[in-house]
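Why this split exists: single-chain examples teach little about how molecules sit against one another. For that reason, every record in the complexes split bundles all components of an assembly together and asks for one structure covering all of them. Below is a record exactly as it appears in the raw files.
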Amino acid sequence: AQSVTQLDSQVPVFEEAPVELRCNYSSSVSVYLFWYVQYPNQGLQLLLKYLSGSTLVKGINGFEAEFNKSQTSFHLRKPSVHISDTAEYFCAVSSSPQYNTDKLIFGTGTRLQVFP
Amino acid sequence: DGGITQSPKYLFRKEGQNVTLSCEQNLNHDAMYWYRQDPGQGLRLIYYSQIVNDFQKGDIAEGYSVSREKKESFPLTVTSAQKNPTAFYLCASSERTNQFFGPGTRLTVL
């Protein structure tokens, strides 16, 4: 069975500072990894995903993540955050990458709060 | 515009009542999902459907029911057997590795 751990429930940061949101996963098989963003009272929007190939994945809004198989991590980074990046961020792993069904297992989320 | 719609946005229910949350997609996706979101717990899978007329229980299916009579529709019924139904409910659909989410329905039990 897969599981996802987001190590920080809240991350406060000042505008234009860099940020890293941490995500670790456990799985006995190959996985697909995802980061989603959720703004208040809205659905989730895909930021980026790792399926295979290059371990450095670039996404929307200037975010990127690096897949580290040996450390079973998929940390999300942004070199300079904006006020508009304030949101909840979810890391997720796909439990059935070889099938047509894409059941996702989510972490508990990290609240990114950007201050002016 | 292609996407997923959920209605209503806010729903209030008295204890003991069944309520149905609507989810419609025009993305032509075979797979659809229902998640429940509670503060500090992330998203938990309630039910999912890979194809019309077929669905499977997720991790927290007790007290919920679904149907999948049409490809574009996957309604969720919260029954009186669900002891703590107040939550934010998200519907999603997927094609391969791309999962798309609706805007959600916030259910409050009075």
